[in-house]
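Hi there,

I know you've been waiting on this one. I reran it after we fixed the sequence typo, so this is the corrected version. Both the input and the resulting structure follow.
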Amino acid sequence: MDQRIIGIVDKLVKYSKTKLINPVAFLAALNLLLKNKKNFTRQELENEYKKTVREIKANTGSDLNIGGRFHADTYPDRMARKYNAFLMLSEDKMQLPPFIVKLPQKAQREIKEFVFKRIIVAQRNKIGNIQSIDTHKKRILLADNKDKFIEFLARELQRSASSFEVVCFAVLKVFLEKFACKLYRNSKTNARDTGIDISTDYGVVYQIKKFKIRRKKEVEKILKEFKVNFDQSRIEDGKLILIIEDVDANFKHFIIFEF
């Protein structure tokens, strides 16, 4: 495989923090090229993007990290400027890099297969192994061995920010149900919206941060965010619970004191 293609796809995948929008758009452009559409408009790319999303969902059986909104008025320009994924021909016309367009169709199909597989691998890496326990029977089988179950949870907690939030939610939900307390998700995983992550039916709010706090200013930034988003009385009453992946021992007292 041409190193230029590998380089483009690597960057598109690497910098897709939540949804794999840009890699899917690149795959959509390859689909257009294989339909003998060498040059295409923003609208044509957006339409093909939606079809490509459905193609991936049909293959994986999951829409996690796939299917975010494609902004045709801005994304192609950014993909051209930052990743050399497109060549802009005019305000509304573009094409894939010329070295791809000039290739025989067989080679273009091979590129499509390469990009498709990379997207699938990236999606599965983000999902982790959560789908391996998607049925009651599978969960019972895994939970039958305490050590393996704890190892599974520990591994998934470390996989990604999204996985960290999902596993925290699952553990808390099951634990609190023993006390007749329901747990609700209030925002998308890793959404960077600084909002509430999890709340209960008795007033407690859980905020999850996959951070490794190593400096005082990082602590101050988090505390400032909470004071903006939450009423002081909720904090003073102990009804705001912060879950952080790791905090240096030198800074734990700052958070404990404030909370």
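Quick highlight: The longest strand covers residues 205-213.

Best,
R. S.
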